Amino acid sequence: MSDDQVKKEKELEPIDKVELMLKKTGCIDLHHAVQECFFETHDWRQCQDQIKKFKDCMNVYRESQEKKYS
Prior knowledge:
Organism: Trichogramma brassicae
Protein name: CHCH domain-containing protein
Helix content: over 70%
């Protein structure tokens, strides 16, 4: 596939606003870890470590934004 074809395919991909937001926070990998855990276990209770890490990351981002805009 040529570079032009790859570029055109990327342009056709729908933009996921949630993914974009999570990339801005720096927590996207932790979000994916939560999703993978749930996909594998089908049980949120078994994913508490991943959920806590994601929550902590989001809290750090939120606090940094609060400081930035206050």
